[in-house]
Write a structure and sequence with these properties.
The chain is of the alpha/beta class and about 550 residues long. The chain has helices spanning about 1-20, 35, 45-50, 60-75, 95-100, 105-110, 115-120, 135-145, 165-185, 215-225, 230-240, 245-260, 290-300, 320-335, 360-375, 390-415, 420-435, 435-440, 450-455, 465, 475-490, 500-530, 530-545; strands at about 55, 80-85, 120-125, 150, 190-195, 265-270, 275, 305-310, 315-320, 345-350, 385-390. It folds into two domains: about 1-285 and about 315-355 and about 445-475, NAD(P)-binding Rossmann-like Domain (Rossmann fold), CATH 3.40.50.720; about 500-545. It contains 23 helices and eleven strands. Helix 9 links the parallel strand 4 (about 150) and strand 5.
Length: about 550
């Protein structure tokens, strides 16, 4: 144990110097085969995927579902897709696959291509956090012998995971996936999904693999051998300039993949903040409260009255269908080229840095207009509030307009025999806002020349289904669609109930204004009745005369 602690201490002290030791790594942007490849004789995207067998991790997540749907809808002649699924909350993988297909995400597929999912998609029981991905020998042999394309989408995206948990899925899971890929006999491409925020100690951030913040093998060894409590105290030293365990482990996972340069046909995709779809599989499709749409939904419900951010910050976000089109196109470009030892690992920033997007302040202000037009059902209060980068002012607003009203509402719920819930929700909102603080107050420039170059490489026959010109999207209309979709898919509210929602919202606005007038009038009367204003003016006058 003493020797192990000595090793740990020495390793921790070396982490800060790791970057300097790796300066010999090339950090210049090389486009490699992306720039050089002649595509005149290669098949189109749909032709390339014809007859292919695909293995997907993370298929039950937000991006994973859209990836499955798009592959099936636009590349219907693929052979089959194997999805790695674990048992979750007592539900076995087979039932989880059925529940996945029941999602509204696949409504277009169910309507236009019935039976396709059932005939093409199969589950592989396993878990990315386990050795060997938790797969049976038979299933592993199946993937080794049949798969052509691998999409590694699975990840823990929680910012508050312990280093042990984050490393178990994001780092060890990637190692185990790469070990499997080495065995796959006919592997044509492995696409690894990272994040644009993996190198937030830099600005601008280019589409290259930068020197690692630590040695990924040593990090895994430490996480696997050290007890949770000791590791918790050492985590800040590991993270260094990086804000949380998520980006730290994702940054190291890139190097697990990068080590296969010239050995495996790998590419890395780095999406920024992935939010609601532009049009596929459904306009505005979303299934989580992340990003700007989450802010608008919470504000529309009357439970979010203040956002801790820089109002002038242009947070980088990318619609989920844009990211997925890039994944599919990027895999096509890599898969149509024979692997050579000199091939670079292409990196694609799925970001909107190339376009003028709304600032946080503009999103919130435009959101007020949108939510007046498309109010949510049974709002607790009229939506209001704004954006501040003052931690003190934000905390005051949280206390007055988040926590105190939540306590009163929960008290009423207890009195009428219902379960209190608003204080718990407000606590989660506050925790999330603080966790997101680095991303809501700091601006990064994600260079995305590779992303744009890939788009230009698309064949004419592929542009209709796989082009991703996000800069052509009307941002205001996009967020209107996002709110409408959030209303339907996140809150399960019906659009036909919109007149009722508008009537209720008007009552909340009247109540809000009435109470404001009453409050301001009471304060004014108190000041007048106590002669506070006259006394203050007299004191000021006398002070000036005394000078």
């Amino acid at each position: 144990m003493a020797n192990f602690k000595t090793h740990i201490g020495r390793y921790i002290s070396e982490i800060l110097m790791e970057h300097e030791k790796c300066q010999s790594m090339n950090a210049e942007n090389k486009m490699g085969f992306l720039e050089e490849q002649d595509l005149s004789n290669v098949p189109s995207i749909t032709e390339y995927y014809k007859g292919k067998t695909i293995f997907v991790t993370g298929g039950s997540g937000f991006m994973g579902k859209v990836l499955l749907e798009k592959l099936l809808y636009s590349c219907s002649d693929l052979d089959r897709i194997y999805v790695l699924l674990r048992s979750k909350k007592g539900v076995n993988p087979e039932d989880r696959l059925a529940a996945l297909y029941a999602s509204e995400c696949f409504s277009r597929l169910r309507k236009e291509k019935p039976g396709l999912f059932e005939s093409k998609v199969f589950f592989i029981a396993g878990d990315c956090s386990e050795i060997g991905l938790g797969m049976s020998e038979e299933d592993r042999a199946l993937i080794v012998n049949r798969a052509h394309i691998v999409f590694h989408v699975a990840a823990s995206v929680r910012f508050d995971d312990t280093l042990k948990v984050a490393a178990g899925l994001n780092l060890r899971g990637t190692r185990e996936l790469v070990e499997l890929a080495k065995e796959i006999r006919n592997l044509e491409v492995l696409l690894h999904v990272s994040t644009s925020y993996a190198n937030t100690n830099r600005d601008p951030i280019d589409e290259v693999v930068y020197p690692p913040h630590a040695n990924w093998r040593d990090t895994l060894e430490v996480c696997e051998k050290m007890d949770e409590e000791t590791l918790k105290h050492l985590t800040p030293k590991y993270l260094g300039e990086l804000p949380n365990t998520y980006v730290f482990t994702k940054q190291l996972a890139e190097h697990v993949v990068y080590e296969q340069k010239g050995k495996l046909p790998v590419i890395i995709a780095r999406p920024s903040i992935v939010i609601s779809a532009i049009e596929e599989p459904l306009p505005g499709w979303i299934e989580n409260f992340n990003g700007p749409v989450g802010i608008l939904i919470a504000s529309g419900k009357g439970i979010l009255r203040s956002v801790y951010s820089d109002p002038d910050l242009a947070a980088d976000y990318i619609p989920v269908d844009v990211a997925i089109k890039m994944f599919i196109a990027g895999a096509w470009l890599r898969g149509t080229k024979k692997l050579e030892a000199t091939d670079e690992v292409e990196v694609y920033h799925c970001s909107s840095s190339h376009m003028q997007i709304m600032t946080v302040g503009e999103i919130v202000e435009n959101g007020k207009e949108i939510l007046n037009e498309i109010p949510l059902d049974n709002v607790l209060w009229a939506q209001d509030g704004g954006v501040t980068k003052s931690r003190l002012y934000y905390n005051l607003r949280v206390l007055l307009f988040h926590l105190l009203p939540a306590i009163l509402v929960d008290l009423v719920l207890r009195i009428i025999g219902r379960k209190p819930m608003l204080f718990k929700i407000q606590r989660r909102i506050y925790t999330a806002n603080i966790a997101l603080h680095p991303y809501l107050t700091q601006q990064w420039k994600f260079l995305n020349k590779n992303l744009l170059a890939l788009r230009e490489k698309l064949k004419l026959e592929d542009k209709k289904m796989f082009n991703y010109a996000v800069e052509m999207v009307d941002q205001l209309e996009y967020f209107k669609t996002g709110v409408r979709a959030g209303k339907m898919y996140l809150l399960n509210e019906k659009l036909e109930d919109l007149p009722k929602a508008k009537a209720h919202y008007r009552r909340m606005v009247i109540l809000d204004k009435t109470l404001r007038i009453a409050l301001y009038s009471a304060v004014a009367w108190y000041v007048y009745s106590r002669d506070i204003l006259f006394t203050a003016l007299s004191y000021t006058y006398n002070a000036i005369i005394g000078l």
